[in-house]
Give the backbone structure.
Amino acid sequence: MTIELKPEQEQIIQLQLASGRFRSVEDVLDTALASLPNKPRSNRNAVARMIAFSREQSVKLPPGETVEGLIEEGHRY
């Protein structure tokens, strides 16, 4: 199988390799793929509630940051 990664996906992989936590791209992908079945569907509800709460409470973030972006970043780690 051949896949094409987005530049930001390649950057994530490179950062993980640079951290020393992984020895190869395959190790990064194996770990990422292995975590998929373990993520409960309730995460989607929790994320939706966090986004709704932040909007209701008018949460202020630094310029250029979004709650969605922070959640996405958190999922990378």
